Amino acid sequence: MQKRFFLEYILLFILAVLPVQGCLSVGNKEVRATARIYDKPYAEVWDALESLIVHDLHCTLKKVIENKGYIETQWVHRIDTEGTLRWRIRSQIKEKKEGVWVVINKEVQVKDAVKKKTNRFEREKIQESTQGSGWKSKRMTSEGYQGLYQQLSNKLEH
To answer: Per 3-state DSSP, what percentage of the chain is helix, strand, and coil (rounded to 5)?
Structure first.
């Protein structure tokens, strides 16, 4: 009896200590993100998040619904030696008893590399146009999310 109680206690402790991680479904794609709660007024958190997205991350807003706490950006494209990458932010803010709940989702996608053989590229180009865009989702690291939340926390401190 004591052994079972001890095991249940350990299991409960482990579940309580694990970080809260949310899973949002965006279209057909699953986006993983963590939520943070801020002990600040809703308007202050909203302004800080919008400033982070527009001024610090240099994103163009696509959809903003302030009364529902939703911000979505246009795709930001980057081309470098690794290939083509694009990302966008989808964030949500809700006022709760504990404070203001914020979820920042950064959806990252990479484009298939262009093949060296022209005929192969033409074949794949045709297949892409009939099967999809050629973009593949890339999972954001927890360090990447931590960085975004740290930037938001820094904005709220100043």
So the answer is: 40, 35, 20
pLDDT 10s digits, 10-54: 544 444 444 433 344 344 444 455 799 999 999 999 999 999 999
Render the burial of 113-138: b for 16+ CB within 10 Å, e for the rest: eeeeeeeeeeebeeeeeeeeebbeee
The Cα–Cα gap between 67 and 140 comes to 28
Q: Which of 133, 89, 96 is nearest to 111 (CA)?
A: 133
Q: 143, 75, 144: which is closest to 110 by C-alpha?
A: 75
**CATH class of the domain whose range is 21-157:** alpha beta
* ∠ CA 35-54-111, rounded to 5°: 80
Domain boundaries, the chain: 21-157
What does pTM read for this prediction? 0.66
Q: What is residue 75's three-state secondary structure?
A: coil
Contact in structure between 100 and 40 (CB atoms under 8 Å): yes
